[in-house]
Amino acid sequence: MASEDEKTSESAVSTIVNLAEEAKLAREGVKTPSYAFLSICKSLAAGGVAGGVSRTAVAPLERLKILLQVQNPHNIKYTGTIQGLKYIWRTEGFRGLFKGNGANCARIIPNSAVKFFTYEQASKGLLYLYQQQTGNEDARLTPVLRLGAGACAGIIAMSATYPMDLVRGRLTVQTENSPYQYRGMFHALSTVLREEGPRALYKGWVPSVIGVIPYVGLNFAIYESLKDWLVKSKPFGLAEDSELGLITRLACGAVAGTVGQTIAYPSDVIRRRMQMAGWSNAASVVTGDGKAPLEYSGMIDAFRKTVRYEGFGALYKGLVPNSVKVVPSLAIAFVTYEVVRDLLGVGIKVSD
């Protein structure tokens, strides 16, 4: 019978051998279960940190966008980006610029992590099916397949974190006269559940799904396709071999984000208004006659009433501050993701 010390020694040696073997396999490109799990966790962490840092950096513009989206047309407080930011600073101080950002980060961190990771997995699955269907093992994703992968990632990430988005909106527009005084994210969640029921946490979910398909889908499809074109055509010497410089990647992301958010923006406005429907005395909540908050029976009704009372341009309220934040937000997100990924030694990355 082997002694306890001998058993312990044999166990330690076995562990070291196993770790060495896993490291060797990892260097050779073979991912063991533990290595793959660790890579997944690191990838999720990198995406989450990137989302949190980038959203905090543009939090004042994000709050102004929401205030413009739900602004009462009979009581205009915010007439533009600069004026709006100055008004918030004057009436609420520095903290007012970041109101609701805690809940926003609590939503965007898991949202960003899930979105990046889901896109990778959906892309791999679609590419495998496409290669099987065409019989070409060297086939690559088409723009349409990338759009599908991006849409899938957007829907899953948005649905998983939607209650946090609703709470973030409520925290952003509440005032001293609001019906409920939310002290924070968790208090807001419990209050909505208690006073309005579980279904209230998903108000505006349908227009969100309709909006996220072109937004996230186009983001990934345009970004990936634009990068591929630049690598293959090498215009103006932007690509060296098969790699693009950081500035070029950021420019690709900015173009993709601008196109996607412009197309999907009306759905975002309707989603926000449906989330605030019936919530009287909130900051600038839109009304039909300036007195009572509008109630919407559904997405189509919300579109109809918005256009009827305020015109087609109301569907793009807040687009300017939203557009202004797209470029720095994407730039910071991509740079942060790259830095964190390198620090953690992530084995998988977007677009590999």
Automatic annotation (TrEMBL):
Organism listed in the record: Rubroshorea leprosula
UniProt repeat feature Solcar, residue ranges: 38-125, 141-229, 244-343
Membrane topology: Multi-pass membrane protein
Main localization (coarse): mitochondrion
Annotated keywords: Membrane, Mitochondrion, Mitochondrion inner membrane, Repeat, Transmembrane, Transmembrane helix, Transport
Keyword check for S-adenosyl-L-methionine: no
The keyword ATP-binding is assigned to this record: no
Record GO biological process: transmembrane transport
Lineage of the species this protein comes from: Eukaryota, Viridiplantae, Streptophyta, Embryophyta, Tracheophyta
Taxonomic superkingdom: Eukaryota
GO CC terms of this entry: mitochondrial inner membrane
Entry-linked PROSITE patterns: SOLCAR (PS50920)
Protein name from the UniProt record: Mitochondrial carrier protein
Protein family according to the UniProt entry: Belongs to the mitochondrial carrier (TC 2.A.29) family.
Localization annotation: Mitochondrion inner membrane
SUPFAM superfamilies: Mitochondrial carrier
Pfam families (UniProt xref): Mito_carr
